[in-house]
Amino acid sequence: MAASDPVPGVHAAPAASAGVRIDDGLAQAMQAWRRDFHRHPELGHQEHRTAARVAELLRSWGIAVHEGYGGTTGVIGVLDGRRGAGPILGLRADMDALPMPDAGAHDHRSVHAGVAHACGHDGHTAILLGAACHLAAHPDFAGRIVFIFQPAEEPLTGAKALAEAGLFRDFPCDELYGLHNNNCIGPGQVGVRTGAILSACDLFEIHIRGVGGHAAMPHQANDPIVAGAALVQSLQSVVSRNVSPLDTAVLSVCQFQAGSAINVIADHAVLRGTVRTLSREAQARVLERLRGLCEGTARGYGCEVEFRHLLSSPPTVNQAGPVEHVKRAAAAVLGTGQVVDPVTPLMASEDFAYLLDHRPGAYFFLGHDGLTCHHPEFDFDDALLAQGAAIFATLVYQRLAG
């Protein structure tokens, strides 16, 4: 199918000021794609079936496709408008699922034990496919669209892998846009804000090595549990005493593991946890203090304390200009009263942040009617599919009016 050929069930491109309406035929196709992805979830960097289906659909609409980009399972689609040269917009969707069971009762629940689309990436992929289908049928714009189907968002490694592989060298983008379902705002609403909309994520592991011994003779041992308990308590002061009250941070110790018998003092304890921050300044300060308290605990308790920084990702920070473009497109599709700005930021994290480190853009929320992400019975709200695709397509027509 040539890019200029009409796609059944897709309306013509609207005027720049109007909003796209997704036809029922395309909306039904998007629902079918989404439920198929939900039934066949794949973990990060293993999205082979999903990526192949995405590539197949993009090619069927005349979109240039680059599979396996950068040695990953990422798929990049490129579509040029019929009005000639213009800006280049990047639209991104994540494709991976979570390593958890699908406890849903619906017919399209996961067929893979221990893997589930419990975050909505099946919906995000279907939304971007719907937008691509519409835009390929009616490329009445000046410029280029780069459709970025990204692997491995959940482990926060996919976007970084694409960027390091040369994504913006090979597919230059002037602006980037991404979305996520969110039940913290009402169905039929869009939430966006300038600045940080999602937090940075840092994961850490702390090993405390002391001297084991008999529980009845603690003076002959050096108990790492005592040192670890003191460290956990000390860490609670980091946010309250080292981060500005006008900034936001969370530090949670989520695992404390030590010992194998009820009457034996362990020689080794392990703490694991996470830091979430909305600014790079707070992120650096919390990590600095975390390391400092580990060093202080080692000196104070005469044990060895090793801090391991397992993962770090930046906050997701929106630029003011792209935020205004999202608001304009969302208002055209849903109505001005359905746009929430500023939406309350979430302390969850997103590796779209890595892409925004390279190019200006905006990440926005679609109001979700249903359970919170990562719930074992989570299922994507299919009503969002047409809304999301319409907002993406409207954004393109408004930004690339020529």
UniProtKB/TrEMBL annotation:
The Peptidase M20 dimerisation domain, residue ranges: 204-298
InterPro entries listed in its UniProt record: Amidohydrolase, Bact_exopeptidase_dim_dom, Peptidase_M20, Peptidase_M20_dimer
Domain of life: Bacteria
Protein EC: 3.5.1.47
One of the Pfam families matching this protein, by short name: Peptidase_M20
Gene3D superfamilies attached to this UniProt entry: 3.30.70.360, Zn peptidases
Cofactor: Mn(2+)
Top-rank EC class of the record's enzyme: hydrolase
The protein's name in its UniProt record: N-acetyl-L,L-diaminopimelate deacetylase
